[in-house]
């Protein structure tokens, strides 16, 4: 019985991968447009920056600094994925990604007291959404703007909406697509679409 179930799951995954690959090859532009889900607020209380590889993370940090002023936010929230960045000569030490992010925000004029590194264990997109839920149970907010890379927006929004509740005021923002090294990369689109499909199945979100 278990062997049959595992076989059916394997076939389903193979079918999903093949279907997504064909769909992407035929309509990568439309897939990209679906993934890039931007929902800007007129004003927002809290901003959260999703973790990521260092190059993308710093682009997200730049977008957060812009959004803080543009949308009159009250705080910027970061979480620590415990990744260590390259050597910083002027400081004579390595900084974690989140330390570099905080430093860059302060260099952009964001007051230090407006930047919070949230406690909790990082665990991918859904893990970050759960950290947000725990934080907002203790520190309620009226509205939240999540900032991530363009193709990650849809899955990030799904995850946060699932964690906080569909009635929450959740908005999305990103950096200009031309800044993104993976612009219309078929391989990147395929990976993100597969992750989106996995999240839909595994976490019942969408």
Describe the fold and architecture.
The structure is a single chain. The chain is α/β, with parallel strands linked by helices. The chain has two domains: 1-36 and 185-206; 46-176, HUPs (Rossmann fold, 3-Layer(aba) Sandwich). Helix content is 51%, strand content 15%. The chain is built from six helices and seven strands. The strands form two sheets. Strands 5-2-1-6-7 form a five-stranded parallel sheet, with helices on both faces. Strands 3-4 form a two-stranded antiparallel ribbon. Helix 2 packs parallel to helix 3 (97-107) and helix 4 crosses helix 5. The longest helix has 34 residues, at 2-35. It is globular.
Write the layout of secondary structure elements.
Layout: H1 2-35, E1 46-49, H2 54-70, E2 75-79, E3 84-88, E4 93-96, H3 97-107, E5 115-118, H4 124-138, E6 144-147, H5 153-164, E7 170-173, H6 186-202
Parallel strand pairs: 1-2, 1-6, 2-5, 6-7
Antiparallel strand pairs: 3-4
């Amino acid at each position: 019985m278990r062997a049959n179930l595992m076989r059916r799951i394997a076939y389903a995954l193979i079918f999903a991968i093949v279907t997504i690959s064909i769909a992407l090859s035929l309509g990568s532009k439309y897939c990209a447009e679906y993934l890039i889900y931007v929902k800007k607020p007129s004003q927002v209380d809290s901003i959260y920056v999703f973790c990521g590889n260092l190059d993308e993370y710093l682009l997200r940090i730049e977008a957060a600094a812009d959004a803080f002023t543009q949308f009159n936010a009250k705080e910027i929230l970061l979480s620590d994925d415990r990744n260590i960045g390259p050597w910083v000569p002027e400081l004579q030490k390595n900084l974690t990604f989140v330390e570099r992010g905080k430093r860059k925000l302060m260099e952009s004029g964001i007051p230090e007291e407006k930047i919070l590194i949230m406690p909790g264990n990082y665990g991918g997109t859904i893990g970050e959404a759960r950290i947000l839920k725990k934080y907002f149970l203790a520190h309620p907010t009226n509205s939240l703007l999540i900032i991530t890379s363009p193709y990650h927006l849809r899955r990030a929004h799904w995850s946060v909406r699932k964690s906080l509740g569909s009635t929450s005021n959740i908005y999305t923002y990103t950096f200009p697509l031309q800044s993104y090294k993976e612009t219309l990369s078929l391989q990147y689109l395929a990976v993100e679409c597969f992750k989106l499909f996995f999240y839909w199945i595994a976490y019942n979100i969408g």
